[in-house]
Design brief:
The chain is an alpha+beta fold. It contains seven helices and 15 strands. Strands 4-3-5-6-7-8-9-10 form an eight-stranded mixed sheet, sandwiched between helices. It has a five-stranded mixed sheet with strand order 12-11-13-15-14, with helices on both faces. It has a two-stranded antiparallel ribbon with strand order 1-2. Helix 1 runs antiparallel to helix 2 and helix 5 runs parallel beside helix 6. Bound molecules: D-MYO-inositol-1-phosphate and calcium ion (2 copies). The site of one calcium ion has 6 residues, from strand 5. It catalyses: a myo-inositol phosphate + H2O = myo-inositol + phosphate.
Length: 259
């Protein structure tokens, strides 16, 4: 099976598990931090995703949130979040998804993000654009940060540092800029890609949160950097993803500047 079909099938397989567990009783346990949850469904989704990938590409490297690094000597690496938005999932809030990125030689080549509860499947392949349910998507055209609608997220353990998550949030809110907090970084990124949000920033993500979503934003015409404004690398924590027009201004505010 092709890499693309394997990615699509693996994403569907994880999402089918999410759907199956959603209305049922499932076990929930805590990881590092407060209310950093993992459910039975996270593990089962991961198993279903692994089964699809391994059936087709048994020699590929896999990096996945719950299983960690299944290292192999391969040019290909699958970067998997079996449920992004686990706290939402555990509370019956249907804003959660499977997110899978596929890297080749250290470059993200494809990404898929699927929320089965609202039936939204985002996909991107480097150089071929981004789609939502097979229709091409583009970032918004909004030019001014002051008129933008933003989204962000907060880490499980509060980061006490200059220009930390609450300080940046407060500054934007005090300037009357609407900011949503959906609870799934992968969905946040996809909703920037399809123009619902003009920008997203977060201080502390893991590679599996953003691997697929950042490529989807770039392929939809957006701009993605780390907090310092350097070209984005998913193996460091900070991210700013925008429609491009508001990037400089959002970057300035995230780094302590005023609007
Ligand atoms: C979390 C979500 C959330 C973000 C957290 C992530 P999880 O992932 O993406 O939006 O704010 O930083 O850890 O734990 O639901 O897979
Ligand atoms: Ca995640
Ligand atoms: Ca997760």
């Amino acid at each position: 099976m092709s890499l693309k079909q394997t990615l699509l099938d693996a994403t569907q397989a994880g999402a089918a598990v999410m759907k199956d567990y959603f209305d049922k009783q499932f076990t929930i346990s805590n990881k590092e931090g407060i209310n950093n949850l993992v459910t039975e469904a996270d593990f089962k989704s991961e198993e279903a995703i692994f089964a699809t990938i391994k059936a087709n590409y048994p020699d590929h490297y896999i990096l996945s949130e719950e299983a960690g690094s299944l290292a192999q000597n391969s040019d290909y690496k699958w970067i998997i979040d079996p449920i992004d938005g686990t706290v939402n999932f555990a509370n019956g809030i249907p804003i959660c998804c499977v997110s899978i990125g596929l890297e080749k030689d250290g470059v993200m080549e494809m990404g898929a993000v699927y929320n089965p509860f609202i039936g939204e499947f985002f996909f991107a392949q480097r150089g071929f654009g981004a789609t939502l349910n097979d229709k091409i998507i583009n970032v918004s055209k909004k030019e001014k940060l002051a008129e933008s609608c933003l989204v962000t997220g907060f880490p499980y353990t509060y980061l006490d540092e200059p220009n930390g998550p609450l300080q940046v949030f407060e500054k934007l809110i005090r300037n009357g800029i609407p900011i949503r907090r959906l609870g799934s970084a992968a969905i946040d990124l996809c909703w920037v890609a399809c123009g619902r949000f003009d920008g997203f920033y977060e201080h502390k993500l893991q590679a599996w949160d953003s691997a697929a979503g950042f490529l989807i934003v770039e392929e939809a015409g957006g701009k993605v950097t780390d907090l310092k404004g350097n070209h984005y690398n998913p193996y460091q924590p900070g991210i700013i993803a925008t429609n491009g027009h508001i990037h400089t201004d959002l970057h300035m505010v995230v780094n302590g500047g005023n609007l």
